[in-house]
Amino acid sequence: MLEATPLDDGWILRHDSEPIPATVPGCVHTDLMAAGVIPDPFLGVGETEVAWVARRDWTYEREIGIPSGQEQTDLVFDGLDTVAEISLDGRLLGTVRNMHRSHRFDVTGLSGRLSVRFVSAYAEAEAVRGRVGERPAAYAEPYQYLRKMACSFGWDWGPTLVTAGIWRPVRLERWSTARIARVRPLVSVEEGTGVVELAVEVERTRVEAPLAVEATVAGVRARAEIEGAGGTVRLRVPDVRLWWPRGYGEQPLYDVELKLVHGEDALDVWRRRVGFRTVELDRRPDAHGTGFTLVVNGERLFARGVNWIPDDVFPSRITRERYRERLEQAAGAGVDLVRIWGGGIYESEDFYDACDELGLLVWQDFPFACAAYPEEQPLRGEVEAEARENVVRLMPHPSLVLWNGNNENLWGFRDWEWEPRLAGDSWGEGYYLGVLPRLVAELDPTRPYTAGSPWSGSWEHHPNDPAHGTHHSWEVWNREDYADYRLSVPRFVAEFGWQAPPAYTTLRRALPGEELAPDSPGMLHHQKADDGNGKLERGLERHFAVPDGDFDRWHYLMQLNQARAVAAGIEHWRSHWPVCAGTIVWQLNDCWPVTSWAAIDGDGREKPLYHELRRLYADRLLTFQERDGRLVLAAVNQGREEWRGTLTLRRMSVEGEVLGRTEVELTAGARTVARVDVPRGLTPLGPKEFLVADAGADADSGADADSGADADSGADAEGLRALHFPVPDREVPYPAPRFEVALAPGGITVTARTLVRDLLLQADRLDPGARADRGRVTLLPGEQVTIGVRGWKTPDAETARSALYCVETAR
After folding, report:
1. C-alpha dihedral over 438, 444, 448, 452, to 10 degrees?
2. Residue among 220, 203, 196, 213 at smallest CA distance from 259
């Protein structure tokens, strides 16, 4: 039987010829921090103080001894970052140059000093650039010249911390006769029967030995003989339970076991979990252009998505528990799809296992982002080897539903002046339209492939044409007001977003001792976007006066504006289902403490945007929209049951007077959108008036916490609310807010005596570990809401009041 021995201890890292202890898996930066050689680059401007680390070569060493008793011993690295020479007892085993693949070396009969010498990624990238020629990119760093996590070279939300190290596990594997080299599982459903086809490749020490494989799933067994280097075994499982995305059904998973046998001896075993489901991508042309709709088990989906970046710029620090926590946060926000963005990595099995269990669909980019990538050697061979390995590695996961060739490179070629600069040089098109679709078709025909995001489907249309395929909406953030999201209806919005600073406590930890201001040194250093603060202020001043000298008001308004901006887009696009078939917010998470587009900051704290997503991605959503010059109320029902109820519409003054009222009956079928015209007599007439729509509760009672919470609060379907103010907040004559705060079991209760717009409890100001269970909430006079708070050690009503912010006090 194959024996595996982890090599995760006993390592040293050579620093100026002096050894320091090394952690494997890990990286040079984390080892140097642990030894006190460098400061934490996440704090203050520490990033600049450690830039020298990336320009050095580094060597990891340890002793290994290899017991006898097996015919072959392999040294296996699951991940080396990135360019390295591996030697054992002074003998060169090989060189590697790809972070995204594993490496195996025959070390039979060898022992002694194991050395892994990493060459600076900069040196390698510059050498490749000298060989293949210059290629344009969105950023100045040379990330397109080697197969490495691109965002370690910095991004408009990430630090430049170019890593090196043994970033995934390493082990010795000892075996005799034969071992399983690869298993490619094709999982499908045929008329209620699950089909598992396992294509097996083996490596032998004895060519003549008769081999067979025995497979088991759900009590079904099958056996096949192995001829030469491989064979196939097929199992049919009757009456399988289908795996569904969250919100559509359950996520049953089945254990698959495959043994490689020689006579009565089991030589090796392969175990995975699979789920039975079908997936299609409907890209048929129609009256609106070219669609892009995911279809799972025959069910057409509006994808409620978030973009995922590496959760730490040092990815070896991301544990199984951290993956689970972050993905549970995503599921808790109503998310059903996570797109793994192309400037990062293929994540570990822990990520996809969690998605399988939580019912989160995974859209996997191949690691290409925002650059022209050379197609010459040594890159081309690495790209194909990496893709082959990772397609097969990730195939068992039912959560994985889409392969995507790249992020923004097809768009960049057309719009970012790459084409004339390239002058005919290769730039990656051969990967996205040739190598990658060929490999996916060969290895994983059960899943769809798309050449890029954005991508219209062919060069007949602009790559980012909103009427065709996927669209990235960045003009709004860069140049326009977020209200302009409502000017178009893309077929699928794969990226859009709005920036905001992280939680106050996160800033305090990251910028110790700094007097916080939007333009203080640390704040500017932790804002990586081009003219980021300028865009934040221009986006805010269309709705509010930009605070001058009051950081707390600035912080609240920027976080509020982020939530409102994303809401404007998602409400509009969801109301246009099925023409628009999905939104993927940029972005769920951060890799360090930074002002960014994330809903969860670099310390894992939820911004108000996170709670906003809970409302926006709920099965049921009420929203006011304009259609052909008329105001309508759209009732979005993504649930499996018909939505019936009474809608109460009120025209109100900001002083709280009801100026008009009507009730209408609502019927919205399952997975549909119903629209109700707003009577002209209820349309607000000026800045002192607004419109309220309630569903599922007595709108006049003001006593129920959920019905008292507006649609911005994430209230459930028993008390949904939508609001419409006809003018920006800066033009609304809000009354001075009056409300009472009292402690309640597990939180606080707020009772409004006036209109209180977008009340927000910043729980981390109560206690660094405190979390609130909701974000912004608008209360009408007499209404009450209870905000749950966990992790608050010394509850106090007056302290809570000091952590409450609302529009009226922040104008």
Report:
1. -50
2. 213
Closest CA to 329 of 581, 582, 601, 721: 601
Closest CA to 20 of 7, 32, 8, 38: 32
Closest to 129 measured CA to CA, from 408, 386, 376: 376
- Predicted structure pTM score: 0.95
In the block, which residue shows the tokens 């003219």?
531
Side chain identity at residue 159, one-letter code: P
β-strand pairing of 361-365 with 337-340: parallel
569 close to 485: Cβ distance less than 8 angstroms:
yes
Q: Are 568 and 487 in contact (CB under 8 A)?
A: no
DSSP type of residue 620: E
What is the C-alpha separation between 389 and 372, in angstroms, rounded?
A: 23
* Strand 470-472 versus strand 492-495 pairing type: parallel
Structure token digits, residue 434:
């040739």
First to last CA, the chain: 71
Among candidate residues 787, 56, 30, the one with its CA nearest the CA of residue 38: 30
pLDDT score, position 17: 75
Tens digit of pLDDT for each residue in 326-356?
999 999 999 999 999 999 999 999 999 999 9
Distance (Å, whole) CA 594 – CA 602: 7
Peptide bond before 454: cis, by omega within 30 degrees of 0?
yes
Report how far Cα 663 is from the mean position of its chain's Cα atoms: 41
Quick check: 13 and 58 in contact, CB under 8 A? yes
The two beta strands, 303-308 and 630-637, are unpaired
The residue with tokens 């704040």 is: 523
Distance CA 219, CA 55 (A): 55
Burial of 685 (0-12, 13-18, 19+ CB in 10 A): exposed
Q: What is the pLDDT of residue 16?
A: 79
b or e along 514-530 (b: 16 or more beta carbons within 10 Å of the residue's beta carbon)?
A: eebebeeebbebbbbbe
Q: What is the mean pLDDT of the chain?
A: 95
Spatial contact of 759 and 783, defined as CB atoms under 8 Å apart:
no
Please confirm whether the linkage preceding 781 is cis (ω < 30° from 0).
Answer: no
Cα separations in angstroms, 549 against 366, 430, 516, 546: 45, 53, 10, 10
Please report, rounded to a whole number, the percentage of residues in the chain having pLDDT higher than 90.
94
CA–CA dist 355, 323 (Å, integer)? 10
Q: Give per-residue pLDDT as tens, 643-684.
A: 999 999 999 999 999 999 999 999 999 999 999 999 989 999
Active-site entry in 47, 173, 382, 408: 408
At 715, the pLDDT band (50, 70, 90 cuts) reads: very low
**CB under 8 Å to 24, separation ≥6 — which residues?**
7, 8, 9, 11, 60, 165, 166, 169, 170
Encode 231-264: b = buried (16+ Cβ within 10 Å), e = exposed: bebebebeebbbbbbbbbbebbbbebebbbbbee
Sheet architecture: strand order including 91-97: 18-21, 12-15, 58-64, 112-118, 83-88, 91-97
**CA-closest candidate to residue 628, choices 580, 691, 677:** 677
What 8-state DSSP symbol labels residue 644? E
**CA-CA distance, 296 to 316, in Å (whole number)?**
33
Distance (Å, rounded) from C-alpha 412 to C-alpha 685? Answer: 45
Where do the DSSP E strands lie in 477-606?
492-495, 582-585
Give tens-digit pLDDT for 159-195.
999 999 999 999 999 999 999 999 999 999 999 999 9
Tokens linked to 621: 């959503």
Return d(Cα 151, Cα 155) in angstroms, integer.
6
Would you say 334 and 304 are in contact if contact means Cβ atoms under 8 Å apart? Answer: yes
Whether 408 is catalytic: yes
What are the tens digits of pLDDT across the range 90-134?
Answer: 999 999 999 999 999 999 999 999 999 999 999 999 999 999 999
Question: How many degrees, rounded to 5, is the angle at CA 582 between CA 577 and CA 587?
Answer: 145
- Here the tokens at position 270 are 């392969």
